[in-house]
Input
Amino acid sequence: MTTQKPITLEEARGIATNEARDIIGEFLPKDRISSILEDEYAENEDCWIFFRNRKINIPVPNRRLVAHWAFAVSRFGEFLTVPDSHGDAHAIDEQLRRLSAYYKSHDFP
Output
């Protein structure tokens, strides 16, 4: 295991924002939105989950794409897309638990 320094919430949000822009940037509305991500996020000791701004409408034919997913970032900067469970506290808690197990099993860092 490395001794890499954990990232901050702001750094994690920056990673999620950049990845979200790559994934759903084509769906951004013509009129500006304040952020590609919701202000709300979920976290535990190993990672954060950031949610797509609900003002961004993803067309129905694209619903199978990860455009409808959320953006997870580990405390050490590893990025994953995860199903978007915004508003479902139980599902989010389960996702955080599984993400923690994943990051620990893959030795990040």
About this structure: The longest strand covers residues 37-43. The chain has a mean pLDDT of 86. Residues 89-105 form the longest helix (17 residues).
